Amino acid sequence: MEMVLVVWENPGNERIVRSMWLRGIAHAAIVVYDITNQRTFEKAKMWVKELQEQTSPHIFIALAGNKADLVSRREVKYEDAQSYAVDNNLDLFMEVSAQTDENVENLFVTVLGCTLHMANVSRATPNALYLGKRQLLTLAGTVTNLTEVKILCLSHNNLTELPTRANMLTNLTVLILNHNKLTQLPESVVELIHLICLYVDNNQLSSLPASMKRLKNLQELDLRNNKLKRICIEDISDLKRLTKLSVEGNPLTLEVKRSLLELRAKNPGRINIDVAGEH
Question: Is the Repeat keyword given for this protein (predicted)?
C-alpha cells in the first residue's frame, strides 16, 4: 500500500490548529509536553480538552512526554501522566526524547498504524483487526463501529477497561485481550454472544461477571495468570459448548479447584480444564 503522511507541527499557532480541527483535516493528534516542566503538562491538558470537545469523536489522540533523556530534572511523574491519559480516555501515552530519538519512531509508527487500521477496516471491512503491542490505553471509538469484524486482537497493550460501545461488535467470534491491565471483565464483552474464543490471560481480573453464562457459543476461555480466587462453577457448567478452560496461575481456593476437577470428571472428553496444583 502506498501512503502519504502529512505531519503538521503547530507550536503555539492556535488559529491554524483550530481551523484544521474544525475542517476535519486531522485524523490523529499528538499532544506533547516537557517532562521537566509541569506548566507544559497543564497546557497539554488544555489542548486535550479542546481536542475532545471540538474535533471528530474518532480522532486518535496520543499524549507524549518529551525530554525523556532528562529524567534527573523530571517535574511530571510518569505515573501521573499515564493515569491522566487513562482517566481521560486517550488512545496512547508514551515518553520520548527528541534529543536521543528514544521512542520517537515508535510513537509515529504506532499512531500511524492505528489510524491506518481504522481507515482501511472502515473501507474494506475485513474479518480481522490486529491492534496488539501498540501501548493503547483504550479502544478507539472508530473500532466499535466496525460491526463486520470477527477477530479482534488487542493483546499486549495498557487497557484497563473497554468502552460500553464495544458491545456493538456483534459479529466477533474471537477476542484477544491477553497481557493488558483489566481488573474486571467488561459487561460489554459478555454481550458479545457469538464469541467462540475469549483470551484474557495475564491481566488482573479478580472476579467474573455473573452473566458469563450468556456466552452460549464459547468454546475456549483462557483466564490464566489473573487474581481470581473464585469461579462460579454453575456458570461454567452452563457453557455447554466450552471445550477448554485455562485457569492456571490464579489464587483459586481449594474448594473451587476441587469443583473444577469434578466438573471435568463428569464431562470426560468434552471439556479440558487446566487447574494449577490439581495434583
Answer: yes
CB distance 217 to 242 below 8 Å: no
Alpha-carbon distance of 12 to 14, in angstroms, equals 6
Q: Are 186 and 211 in contact (CB under 8 A)?
A: no
Which residue in the block uniquely carries the three cell numbers 483459586? 252
How far apart CA 204 and CA 225 sit, in angstroms, is 8
Query: Cβ contacts of residue 27 below 8 Å, gap of 6+?
Result: 59, 60, 115, 119
pLDDT of residue 80: 95
Q: Model confidence over 156-168: pLDDT tens digits?
A: 998 998 888 888 9
Contact 112, 91 (CB under 8 A): no
SS3 content of the chain, % helix, strand, coil (to 5): 35, 15, 50
